[in-house]
Each structure stands twice: as C-alpha cells, then as structure tokens.
Amino acid sequence: MAEKIRPVRGMNDILPDEAAAWQHLETEARRVLEAYGYREIRFPHVERLELFARSIGEDTDIVEKEMYTFEDTGGEILALRPEGTAGCVRAGITNGLFRGQTHRLYYLGPMFRHERPQKGRYRQFHQVGVEAFGPATPDLDVEQILMARRLLQDLGVEGLTLHLNSLGKPADRRVYREELVGFLEARRDSLCETCQERIQRSPMRVLDCKVPTCQEAVAEAPEITDFLGEESRAHFDRLRALLDAAGVPYELNPRLVRGLDYYTDTVYEWTSDQLGSQATVVAGGRYDGLVEEIGGPSTPAVGFALGIERLLALVAPERVPEPHPSVFIAPLDAAVETDAMALAESLRDRGVSAWYHCGGGSLKSQLKKADRSGARLALVLGEQEQAEGTVLVRDLASGEQEALARREVEDHVVHRSS
Question: Is 83 a known ligand-binding residue?
Fold first, then answer.
C-alpha cells in the first residue's frame, strides 16, 4: 500500500456532516446582506503580491511573515489572498465600478495566512466579507454595524459586545504616532521582543498586543481619540449619536487599532463572550484612502469581515436544518430498476427530493438505509409491484404502508411533501 499523503497543516477538510452548518451560515449571510441591498462579487484567490504590499502595508506582520507567495512560470510574484478587501477594491478598479456610484458588495470564500494553527484560526480560513463604496458619511458605518448584529443574532449568537474606536485621518495619525513612539521608547524594556521591533515600524500595533507585560506597559498610553482633527471628531460623534438612537450599546476601546494599515476613522469589532480569548466574531472599519492608493479614483469605503470557522463554533446544532430527502426509492431487484429510476426522475421534475438506492439489497437492508436518510416515505418496487402496476408506499415514522396504483403515487407523494 502506498504511503498516505498528509494534508497541509492548518488546512482542513469540510466533511458532508459539517457542510450543512456551512451552508446554513452562508444562506443566512446571503439573506441578510441582500436585504440591505448588498450584491455578491467574486474575484480570484491569487493576486499580484504588490496589491497586498501596497494596501495592507509592507511593514505589517501579514505581508512580512504570513503571506503565501510564489513566482509563476512567467516570473511574476503572486500571492494567495490573505484578506478580501484589497482584492475586492482591485476588482472594482479593474472593472470601472468606482465612477461616482454607490456599490454595496459582499463575498464569501477562503483566505490564506501562514500562522500557527490553533482553534478558530487556520492557515486556510473562510470569511464573509462586506464592502460599501460611495458615501463618506457615518450612517453607512452604522448600517453595517447593525447589519452585522442582525446576522449574528439571526444565527443565535449570544453575549455580543460592540467595541468602537476612531483612528482619524492619516494626518491625525502622524501627530499621534510621534507622541506614541516617545511613550513606548521610554518603556521599551517592559515590552516583549515583538513589540520592541514594532515601536518604530508599527507602533499602534503595540497597543493591541495580548502579552500581559505589554498590556501593563501601555495602560497609560496616549489615546488616539485625543488627537482627532475636526472632521474625524465630527464623524465619530455623529456615528455614536446614531448608535445611541438605534439603541445599540457599545464600549469605547482606545486600544482597538486593527492590524491593517488602510483603516481610517471608524474601526469596530463585535465580540462574543462564548469564545474565550478568541472573542472577535466580526471586525471592520472605514478605509477612505484605499481605492486611490491602489490606483483608482478617490472613493470613500467601509467594510467588515466575519470569520466563518469562528462563527460556526457559536451556532447551535439545533439551528442547522439537516438535509434529507422527502422520499427514499427502494428497487428490490434489477428487473425494476428502469421503472424505479423513471419514478425518481418524474418526482424530481415535480420538485420532490428523491433519493434512489443504488446497489441493490434486501427489503430489510434498504428500509434501514431509508430510516437513516431522514426521508418521510419509502417507495418500494419489486417484481410483484411491477406486475400489479403498484408501488408500496411506507410511512417511515409510523411503519404504516399501503400499495398504490403507479398513476396515483406521484400525486400522493407531492401532496405529502408539500
């Protein structure tokens, strides 16, 4: 026997018993997002490395340490997408979407980062992503926050908290950065090695470090909201007023900075107290300069991402509908297979989910499989039924059964299935 080929670490198979939960989540996401006017967009899993270096930031951990990159046969340096926003923006620029119109877009699919695999965090992970392009006003930010909450609540997620911050404009951050670097340099020895490297390169990331000594060291750090310019202050105040009016409680979190360079003004996270240390379920914010940074026209934008694997851990199994057929068709011998298959196809033509049993077997063994399938009815055809022009219809819940004329069976099943 040949040696087994092992799966790539951190990249998981999704088996049929698990896929029902994925399908349920994806269906609910599409339903909620489309109710708010968002439309699906699909774009490649592979992009030029330059796209992510320019959008996410060359000095970020994602670009420096976590990207899956390779050189193709034409000599181009490509990368598997580590997040969806940059690819969505690139697709919008390529296809001329940003010409003054408002676009509400969403996507679902895998992302790739070479991180240390752990529960809820994998090297191939999946996201629902939402992006809106057009208005720079805070009502669009609030609409997305409400939309994310609605999806989480409809999926039955409990213990939700909204964390909120503003990063201001790039000019605001430059002033804040100087103040923060001075503060951190004075406490360099109290920081972990990673954060010491970040002081000059990406100082705001130090605020988000989960190492206890780092958290203690930055407890008195200056807060970026004290450095907001007039425009960003007005945006943040209006956003908070709209949330208050909508009855959405939130916690101001000056340590919430996000790990991507393109964010401006609003940043937020929805967390759940059901997830332990990996509490974030939805993360998002505004990125008004990204479209222009990638080569498009100046276009304000705001979006969020939802981690599917992490969210699935919060969806109760009883909320996930189990896929099962309406009828199970059991042919008892080869002589009736043609008629049994024709019956199955005719029922499917009328919208009935019909599972046809392939491979033969005794009546007893086929009825056991029918029970396991979750079907309401079993339709049994043998040589006797074929000769009499009948089909044996068995109610799998009660065990009651009756022989019906072949011409009556379809109407009977359609009625029972409606």
Answer: yes
Residues facing residue 355 across a β-bridge:
328
CATH code where residue 119 lies: 3.30.930.10
Query: Does residue 354 belong to any structural domain of this protein?
Result: yes
Query: Do residues 379 and 391 lie in contact, with contact meaning Cβ atoms separated by under 8 Å?
Result: yes
Task: State yes or no: 131 annotated in a binding site.
Answer: yes
Q: What is the pLDDT of residues 191-233, one digit of tens each?
A: 898 898 888 888 888 887 888 899 888 888 899 999 999 999 9
Residue 382 and residue 275 in one domain? no
User: Is 68 known as a binding-site position?
Assistant: no
To the question of whether residue 263 is assigned a binding role by annotation, the answer is yes
Is pTM beyond 0.70 here? yes
Q: Taking a C-beta distance cutoff of 8 angstroms, is the pair 86, 293 a contact?
A: no
Whether 406 has a binding-site annotation, put simply, is no
pLDDT digits (tens, 9 = 90+) for 310-341: 999 898 888 888 888 999 999 999 999 999 99
Q: 262: annotated binding-site residue?
A: yes
Determine the Cα–Cα distance for residues 313 and 308; give it in Å rounded to an integer. 9
Write phi, then psi, for 203 (nearest 5 degrees).
-60, -30
Is 124 assigned a ligand-binding role in the annotation? no
Last residue of a domain, one of 301, 318, 335: 318
